[in-house]
Write a structure and sequence with these properties.
The protein contains seven helices and seven strands. The chain has helices spanning 19-33, 54-68, 86-99, 114-130, 170-178, 181-184, 198-214, and strands at 10-14, 38-44, 72-78, 103-107, 148-152, 162-165, 220-225. Strands 3-2-1-4-5-7-6 form a seven-stranded mixed sheet, sandwiched between helices.
């Protein structure tokens, strides 16, 4: 899967390959299954990960994208633990202008991993900049206003304000996560990390079940909107 110039419905940014799968894999799978065009843009290749290699992670990301039914997957190649700076935000802004998504997803900017925090803040800036008509970033890309920006949760659990039923695709979400064998399945010679402990995958499933219980379904994923949601009537 390579970059695309066809407008997409949903563009999800992650600091590392596997971030989106953990926090919003079900949402992407559900939308792809319904015929929506979905894309993941990974900011780094996670080259500082304790286990695996860049080459292994690339193949794992490719496989996970196939499982989720992505239209495309992009990696901007920013340095792991080196997120920030104007040039990186401009590169992200160009991605948004090129793909013209209706909705953007980003990591919730409160998390134990600093890269997740940085990515969430950078996406907010890139979404804002993409809509500035007089901001010329080259490549003949016109401005684009995203309809909605939502934050997804990776490690920490805040109070989600929007819950999406993913019961019909939860097993696909889990399969996409497990495509990253180097990260979630500890094998001989690999070091122990928070991700390859048995309780981590159990936490992801339990969290989805908890959110699901709140809306009367088996599994759900939680999101936090950047702006308040509005309704015309309550009854």
């Amino acid at each position: 899967m390579t970059s695309t110039t066809t407008p997409v419905d949903l563009l999800a940014f992650g600091a590392h390959p596997d971030d989106v799968e953990i926090g919003a894999g079900g949402i992407l799978a559900k939308h792809a299954q319904a015929g929506r065009r979905t894309v993941i843009c990974d900011l780094t290749e996670a080259e500082l990960s304790s286990n695996g290699t860049v080459e292994i992670r690339r193949e794992e990301a490719r496989r996970a994208g196939e499982i989720l039914g992505l239209a495309s997957r992009i990696n901007l190649g920013f340095p792991d633990r080196g997120l920030g700076g104007r040039e990186q935000i401009e590169a992200m802004t160009r991605v948004i202008r090129r793909l013209r998504p209706r909705v953007v997803l980003a990591p919730y900017p409160k998390d134990r991993h600093p890269d997740h925090v940085a990515a969430g803040r950078m996406v907010k800036e890139a979404v804002f900049d993409a809509g500035i008509r007089k901001l010329d970033l080259g490549e003949g890309l016109p401005s684009h206003r995203v309809e909605r920006l939502y934050y997804y949760f990776i490690n920490d659990v805040e109070r989600a304000q929007l819950l999406v039923d993913i019961s019909g695709v939860y097993e696909r979400k889990e399969a996409a996560i497990l495509a990253y064998r180097s990260q979630f399945l500890r094998e001989e010679g690999e070091v122990e990390t928070p991700l390859n402990q048995p309780h981590y995958l159990a936490m992801i499933r339990g969290r989805a079940q908890l959110w699901g219980q709140q809306i009367g379904v088996d599994f759900a994923e939680g999101l936090a909107p950047e702006r308040p949601l509005s309704v015309e009537w309550l009854a």
